[in-house]
Amino acid sequence: MALFLSDAADPNNETQINIMKEGRGKTPKQGDYITLHYKMRVQGQHHDFDDTWLIKKPYTFKLDPGARKVIDGWEKAFLSGKLKEGTTAELVIPYQEAYYEKGAPPYVPARSGIVCKIEVLSVNDHRCVIL
């Protein structure tokens, strides 16, 4: 059973991972390509500002910490070992691990945490896109 803490602040300012459905596939490691569906909203708001399910196009990225391919909260979550292929989870990401002090105008105001729902579709050691 999943515990939803979407608008609860983590006192340590770290990304929270709330597993909704546990996957049984590969566990991502540094250098892997991850393909996933996601939707994101600003913490405390009710509308999504980005949604790959809506556009029916999964997102693929290389897990390359420090290269700024994705936000820090995603890197930490995927390197945690908790987000295997097939996992559906909610990530609650503080601004310090998302878009920092400046935010990402016009979608993410300054100093705003974000909430992401993700579904990990594949983990590969080479680029492979699911259509």
UniProtKB/TrEMBL annotation:
Q: Could you tell me one molecular function GO term of this UniProt entry?
A: peptidyl-prolyl cis-trans isomerase activity
What UniProt keywords apply to this chain's record, in alphabetical order?
Isomerase, Rotamase
List the Pfam families hit by this protein, alphabetically: FKBP_C
InterPro entries attached here?
A: FKBP-type_PPIase, PPIase_dom_sf, PPIase_FKBP_dom
Q: What is its EC number?
A: 5.2.1.8
Which residues belong to any copy of the PPIase FKBP-type domain? 31-124
Q: Does the keyword Transferase apply?
A: no
**Reactions accelerated catalytically:** [protein]-peptidylproline (omega=180) = [protein]-peptidylproline (omega=0)
- Name the PANTHER family on file: FK506-BINDING PROTEIN 59-RELATED, PEPTIDYL-PROLYL CIS-TRANS ISOMERASE
Q: What is this protein called?
A: peptidylprolyl isomerase
